[in-house]
Design brief:
The complex is a heterodimer of chains A (371) and B (334).
Chain A (H helix, E strand, L loop, with lengths): L5 H26 L4 H13 L2 H26 L7 H18 L5 H30 L3 H24 L21 H5 L15 H18 L1 H11 L1 H6 L4 H18 L1 H9 L10 H11 L4 H24 L4 H17 L1 H26 L1
Helix pairs in contact in A: 1-15, 1-16, 2-3, 2-14, 3-8, 3-11, 3-13, 3-14, 4-5, 4-6, 4-11, 4-12, 4-13, 5-6, 5-11, 8-9, 8-14, 13-14, 14-15
Chain B lengths: L1 H21 L3 E4 L9 H16 L4 E4 L5 H11 L5 E4 L4 H7 L8 E4 L10 E6 L1 H15 L4 E8 L2 H17 L4 E8 L8 H13 L4 E5 L3 H11 L3 E6 L10 E7 L1 H11 L7 E5 L6 E3 L11 H16 L19
Parallel strand pairs in B: 1-2, 1-3, 3-4, 4-5, 5-11, 6-7, 6-8, 8-9, 9-10
Antiparallel strand pairs in B: 10-12
Helix pairs in contact in B: 2-9, 3-4, 5-6, 5-10, 7-8
The chains are: A mainly alpha (371), B alpha/beta (334).
């Protein structure tokens, strides 16, 4: 039934898409009179050439892993969760409340509480659109995206009016106490004799994100619930005929999705900023969609795509620091990658499928006379 | 091995001394972007003036993400840049974290607030409510309908501070005047949303406003544009925006971020740090823009009233209430 072998599907299609995006980006950089080869070198050395660069790349990647997984889980149930942004914002609120108002003795306990807090807030924020979809048929794409704006307003209200320390102009909470600061990769790797950059923000959340990848894989492919989610996503009618409740699956899938998006906050709020700022999520919820699309909603794919986007973010930052390439153009390059890997998937897939079909036919026609 | 170490040590020393000799100032723009025709652009203009006058060079970056704040600060400090100037209150916290790690580098933050200022950090603030008060007076005098508008960027205390000073100025001239206040949004996107600025302007016009003050960064460009298209007056902010629509912009509330940046760069490594600098009317840190573009709009009466109020504020006879004093505005609800 499959036209293409699995390796072509998983590796070849994204790789060719990336190549096309890279060629187009190079042309754009050429057009503004900069050297694309130098730009690529700067991006690679800036993002992957030092532990400092890796630290930033992995920090961004951790964000995208959580939001990518969130979108992927919803995808498996046939639901398009565009609300990762808002769910992650609320997750941040959960983390901030847990960290600010409970005196934790040690980060290990605090991080567990923060995971629960962020997951709970994120899940709650996803629960309302999920309920509306399941019971009232309000389309989840519309409701989740609207909830992003409501989340921004809620966060703004909380930060400006309630959580802001007196005198401060910045709509942000106070710094979290020392005890809940998460160890960075520098602290984690030092006992093993690996010198990792101290300045980089990558932290223990990366490990949490990787565990989340494994757990999502187990959930989707190794549990009865995962089977129900997948069958509901493939065909709602068939699933209902098989006795799978649509309300139940919609709610459960969206709650898990929202919880995963919310958990991003332990990386950016607890791990990096160590306080909650208004702009904490800054688009990671939307990047998660691209990551899930590119990763084919598989945890391994999400993991790799998240690292790719982390590389694009950190490489882009280095470009902005040391060249005169304007930041808008860096967004263009990131957008090209999203466009080719996400939206224009079929542009690469269809010709490839034709090639593989043709190859198969020729190999068959060659083999028939011998029979 | 030892040779290698010596070599590395020598190159490190070389890099250090090179860094010290360079000492270019660095300027970090906030998320609104360099060319917002307003706050960040004022900072850029100050830096450019310094560069033109001295022939010096400066490093700069426009941020894209929150995590880059600390990153850019550290990278510039490590590269030997001095002083490192940041625009926007959101930098106060990252600066307070990074600065102690680089005691030889001077850091400047414009608009920020810290509970304790590290020895190598200087904070520069402006008395925006005083300048806004003056443009509020002018708005009330220019208004025929008795209704004026205020369009803020992101709904944060700083912008309410602008709006509150403006409303006080309006009420000082015409106690019965109506001030309509709207904020563009609750996310940083509100700093750069000219389309929404334009929509809000139309909404305020339909409610009767005939002078609108925009304190919204790049969003203000849309406000000024629509006001000019609909043939009402607007008031610009931060930079002198009178020229954007000559004869249609009543005035601009100047916030001399450019002067702050210029002075910091000029002082260079020797600048004084460890405290707050507050620039108000007396220091000409804020003010009202009068030039050939709004010559026809500003009456002698307005000029006289503004000059009088200015004197009174400087001498302390007239107190414009700051929104921060008790996080509320006596004449305007947000």
């Amino acid at each position: 039934m499959d036209v293409m072998p699995k390796w072509a599907e998983v590796i070849l299609v994204p790789l060719i898409s990336l190549l096309l995006a890279a060629i187009l980006s190079a042309l754009v950089i050429l057009a503004i009179g900069e050297d694309p080869v130098a730009a690529v070198k700067l991006m690679v050395s800036g993002a992957l050439g030092s532990t400092y660069g890796w630290g930033y790349t992995l920090y961004y990647a951790t964000n995208f892993m959580f939001t990518g997984l969130a979108v992927a889980v919803a995808f498996h149930a046939g639901l398009f969760n565009i609300g990762g942004e808002g769910q992650a914002m609320l997750g941040g609120l959960g983390v901030a409340l847990v960290c600010l108002f409970i005196p934790w003795p040690h980060w290990t306990i605090a991080v567990l509480a923060a995971i629960i807090g962020s997951a709970l807030f994120g899940a709650l924020w996803a629960a309302i659109p999920a309920y509306l979809q399941a019971k009232r048929g309000s389309h989840i794409v519309i409701t989740t995206i609207m909830f992003n704006f409501i989340a921004a307003a809620v966060l703004n209200y909380m930060l400006v009016n309630i959580l802001r320390p007196a005198g401060s102009m910045d709509p942000a909470t106070a710094r979290f106490p020392e005890a809940v600061h998460l160890p960075s990769l520098h602290d984690l790797l030092a006992p093993f004799g690996i010198a990792f950059s101290k300045a980089a923000p990558a932290n223990v959340s990366l490990v949490v994100a990787m565990i989340a990848c494994v757990l999502v894989w187990l959930l989707i492919w190794r549990t009865p619930l995962g089977l129900e989610i997948r069958s509901y996503g493939k065909s709602q009618r068939a699933a209902r005929y098989a006795g799978i409740g649509s309300v139940r699956i919609t709610m459960i899938a969206m709650l898990i999705s929202g919880a995963l998006a919310g958990m991003m906050a332990i990386n950016n709020v607890m791990g990096e900023a160590e306080r909650l700022v208004l702009n904490a999520v800054e688009g990671a919820g939307f990047i998660g969609i691209a990551v899930a699309l590119m990763g084919r909603s598989h945890p391994v794919g999400v993991f790799l795509a998240a690292i790719l986007f982390g590389f694009l973010y950190q490489g882009g930052a280095e470009l902005a620091l040391w060249t005169s390439i304007p930041r808008e153009l860096i967004v263009v390059i990131q957008a090209l990658v999203i466009l080719f890997t996400g939206a224009l998937d079929n542009m690469v897939r269809m010709p490839l499928e034709r090639i593989f079909l043709a190859l198969r036919r020729t190999s068959k026609s060659k083999s028939t006379p011998a029979e | 091995m030892t040779l290698m170490q010596k070599f590395l040590g020598a190159s490190a020393a070389l890099a250090l001394s090179a860094g010290a000799a360079l000492a270019e100032p660095a300027l970090i723009f906030d998320l609104g972007g360099k060319f917002d025709k307003s706050f960040n652009e004022a900072a850029f203009n100050g830096a450019k003036r310094w560069a033109d006058e001295t022939g010096g060079k400066f490093l700069e970056i426009e941020l894209q993400s929150e995590a880059q704040r600390e990153q850019a600060l550290r990278r510039f400090a490590e590269s030997g840049a001095n002083p490192v100037i940041t625009t926007g209150f959101a930098f106060a916290d990252p600066v307070s974290v990074v600065a102690p790690d680089y005691p030889d580098t001077k850091f400047v933050n414009i608009d920020g607030w810290m509970p304790e200022v590290p020895a190598n950090v200087q904070l520069i603030g402006f008395q925006e409510h005083q300048g806004s008060y003056l443009v509020g007076m002018m708005a009330a005098m220019a208004s025929e309908s008795g209704t004026v508008g205020f369009i803020g960027g992101m709904d944060i205390p700083l912008i309410r501070h602008f709006g509150c000073g403006f409303a006080q100025g309006v009420k000082a001239i015409n106690p019965d005047a109506t001030v309509i206040a709207n904020m563009t949004g609750t996310t940083p996107a509100a700093w750069n949303d000219p389309v929404k600025g334009s929509e809000l302007t139309k909404a305020q016009i339909s409610q009767g406003a005939d002078v609108i003050y925009a304190a919204a960064g790049g969003t203000g460009v849309g406000v000024l544009q629509t006001a000019a298209d609909e043939d009402i007056l607007s008031i610009g902010v931060d930079s002198n925006q009178n020229y954007l629509h000559s004869g249609k912009v009543l005035t601009s509330m100047l916030k001399r971020v450019d002067v702050a940046v210029y002075d910091s760069m000029k002082a260079g490594e020797g600048m004084e740090t460890g405290g707050f600098t507050t620039l108000g009317l007396a220091e000409e840190g804020v003010g009202v823009a009068l030039d050939e573009h709004n010559d026809a709009l500003v009456t002698d009466e307005m000029e006289a009233a503004v000059a009088e109020a200015r004197e009174k504020i400087i001498s302390g006879d007239l107190e414009v209430v700051a929104y921060y004093t008790n996080d509320s505005c006596p004449v305007l609800d947000f």
